[in-house]
Amino acid sequence: MAAIVQAVGLSKQVLSGDSPLTILHDVTFAVEAGESLAIVGASGSGKSTLLGLLAGLDVPSSGSVLLQGADMFALDEDGRARLRGELAGFVFQSFQLLPALNALENVMLPLELAGAKDARQRAEDSLQQVGLSARAHHLPKHLSGGEQQRVALARAFVTQPKILFADEPTGNLDAATGSQVIELMLELNRAQGTTLILVTHDENLARRCGKQLRLAAGQVI
Amino acid sequence: MNLLHLSLNLLRRDWRAGEWRVLLLALVLAVGSLATVGLFADRVRQALQQQAQSLIGADLRITSTRAFSSAYREMAQARGLQVVQSRTFPSMVAHGEQVLLSEIQAVEAGYPLRGKIEIDDGDVHATKAIPARATVWVDERLLRRLDMQVGDEVGIGARRFTVAARIVKDIDQSVGFASFAPRVLMNEADLAATGLVQEGSRISYRLLIAGDAKQVKDLRAALQKHLSGNEKMEDVRDARPEIRTALERAEHFLGLAALTAAILAGAAMALAARRFVMRHLDGVAVMRCLGAQQTQVLWLFLYQFILLGVVAVLLGGLLGYVTQALLVESIASMREAILPQPSVLPLLKAAVSGFALLLGFAFLPLLQLRKVSPLRVLRRELGLPEASGWLIYGLAVGVLALLFLWHAGSLKLGLAVLGGLLAGLLLFGWLAWLLLHGLARNAFILDSHWRHAFNNLARHGRSAAVQVVALSLGGMALLVLTLVRADLLQSWQGKLPPDAPNRFVVNIQPDQIQPLRDFFARQSLPSPELQPMVRGRLLSINDRAINGDSYLDQRARALVEREFNLSYMEQMPAWNELTGGKWWGRGGGEQLSVEEGIAKTLDIHLGDTLTYDVAGSRFTARVTSLRKVQWDSMKVNFFVIATPELLKDFSASYLSSFYLPPDKVRAGDELSRAFPNLLLIDTGAVIAQVRNIMDQIAQTVSAVFLFTLLSGLAVLYAALLSTQDERSHEAAILRTLGADSGYLRRLHLSEFAVLGGLSGLFAAAGAVLLGWVLARFVLEIPYQMNFSVWFIGVIGGVVVVTLAGWLATRRITRLPPLRILRAD
User: Fold this and answer.
1) Chain B, 256-315: which have a CB under 8 Å from a chain A CB?
2) Which of B8, B282, B286 should we substitute to test contact with A (largest number of A Cβ atoms within 10 Å)?
3) Mutate to test the interface with B, among A12, A101, A104, A141 (most CBs of B within 10 A)
4) ipTM score here?
5) Of B697, B693, B486, B705, which is closest to residue B37 (Cα–Cα)?
6) What torsion do the CA atoms of A193, A195, A201, A202 make, to the nearest 10 degrees?
7) Lowest-confidence range among A189-193, B276-280, B577-581?
8) pLDDT, tens digit, for every residue of A31-62?
């Protein structure tokens, strides 16, 4: 199978005071469609930076990322946004639901941005899949952490993305709720055949992914 | 369509969450205050105009010593204008054995076209009617001098008339001081029967015209070509210099008041927009992450803004309309004056200004949102991109500048306020930042909560500086308005003290000077200041002969076609101000001093030589000084003053102005009897009218000031809201760490007190500076710094900001910290 995500010589440097600080150094790897990859490492090892670059949320100092063969950084900011909209779904540690929109509207958001006509129906189906139909009209602040992350999962899967980027999806949840959310995420992942790229420092969770990429001080070890 | 739907959906949700309320409130308040000020000023301006019109009884008045060509009336009627004619002439009025020379005015039905005559026919009332046939209305002076009452009979020419009413308030009086005699108003239809109108009679014809302003203007332009040398056309603007000055000042002032409201509204909106932007960073980052493009983000907000703008303009316009109506109702003199309805123009102006404010202060900062990095979903510390900040602030300033110039109604006023504002913004911002850091560094000597407060402010130096700048801007505008207002009122009312001259006496012959002084002494009146007067015609300027045809301007034509009243003196009158050249000392040779207004009209400059013809002999002298004259001082003023050497050999008469107290009115009558050749002119009526106009302006300004104050409070509200999120988050953390609510309260109050004190200090500094600039260069009144402004500024700032801050944050200190942290 062809690689859906490919990182080639990815480096990121930032200025710390006057001296450059290397956050990522020459990271190269590939993930094939339908695979799951866990990026693991200690705090500050560059996990989230790598995820940001893979999703085209940030630009590297050098190197490139190919999503389904398209060079992310040959595109401008809007081009990368369009590509993300077409290919990617996201789950974040801090859920990142829009506080002014209710659960259903949050799930509808990526569909509406993409101009989908049947946004409401698909969002309702997606909420049903995560077992939150009854809470569809609640605002995020009226949902528990676990419920908010399930809404985030519904939003991530509603566009049937080819790739799901997840940044510490259980970081803000207690163990039991976190475990439920992970089960749900993996199940949806399997059902849709989505490629999963997951940042975590939870070794148990990492082991449940097909591949692991271990980072230390910005380098693959 | 989906984007519009999403946009409106977001708007609805944001509205539910309260996100738009502050911005909408600020915009409604902005449009509301602009509309209020605009509509109110429009009505007052119209009323002032009408009131001033009542002085000439029309929009346009033509006077002549000969009967008018019927073409004038036809030209006016063809434009749909109302026309009435009146004839005025001097004649004896007889009552019993006594006779008195009076000014008789015969009027047609419909007279006067503007204003109302107030009469007392047993009941004092204003009327639009004219005397019935065989009756006359006479003024108080005639009743008093002829010892008669309403109901008595008088003889005028060959006819007898019943005095049907006493004239309480007259209008359409002669311009200048020709109206020296008691007035009698009669019906035009009775005129022929008196037998007084014959060949050679001294009759002054007046054609009064009124109607649609544009048509009147057109007619004025058309008539200008037709007028002969003995016909004079005047409207309210050139009818009386003192009224013109009052109107111009009123317009400046109302423009300034509108401007203040606009500045404050802009500041409130900028703060509200900043909060809106900060609260939408996360949402936009998520949308960008989910695939939203920059143009999509832009349109999401554009749709919302257009809708917000439309709603705010409608609500603001409505608010403005209702408020100005309530305002008018609440001021007794306005209610009684029955102000004309406002035109729709101020509403349109407010609407356009509202959209401009939205664009300049709110939308442009929001444009930055489309550039929010999607990476913020992973790294929350990423804020707004800074790069385009200058462009955005530049555009905001540009929009403000245009609004200023527009609302000020005068380039000079707009630029003065704008310049003061920009300079103030930069200076205040920099000083605030500097002071906050300086205070924080030295705060170690203070109590814990004060130290914490100063450190907090310094840590958020930029944000605190922005708040100080916004608050001081509001404060500055408020203080400027109070300062300038006080100065202006002082200047006006100072010029018209209660004992301002109310009588002019002219035609005093040199041999009457001493007897006149003796008469004043006998009546216990202060000895009058007498000014010599010589009448002369201006023949040439710099040896270039001039006449009416030398000028296009009607006023200039009229001026050179009649004789000037020249005077001579050694000392410049104290109520004149030298604006160019030098005043002569004793033995100044042959020099002239010209009033700057007439110099401009006639294109006379310092150093020019003027040639005059006085009673057949000529003299030529150089203009060595220019003077500014306070026409509204009611004192004797001359356009041209010469050195005594130049004029003392010509025969002169003398004139004087003096104050005749109400209890000594009879002394005036005795003066007329003792010196029959003297003309005693009652200027009291004119003074009363000018004072009435000024009082109305003062009341208007005070009322408008209330709205500026409201806008200032909106700035404060927006400033407090803009930091509320940060403040509650910090409070939650401090409470988690053990701070009790008393400590938090002291901390917050200390921060607000420092912010308020600094804002007040800067507001006072800015107000003093701007007040001086406005007074000196725009309103042209002397400026005296009011030291209490510093005290009021600082104490007011501390009290108002602390109180408002306490009201806004008292909830924070009581909420359980977890609720706040979870909500974050």
Assistant:
1) 282-283, 285-296
2) B286
3) A101
4) 0.87
5) B705
6) 10
7) B276-280
8) 998 899 999 988 888 888 899 899 888 889 99
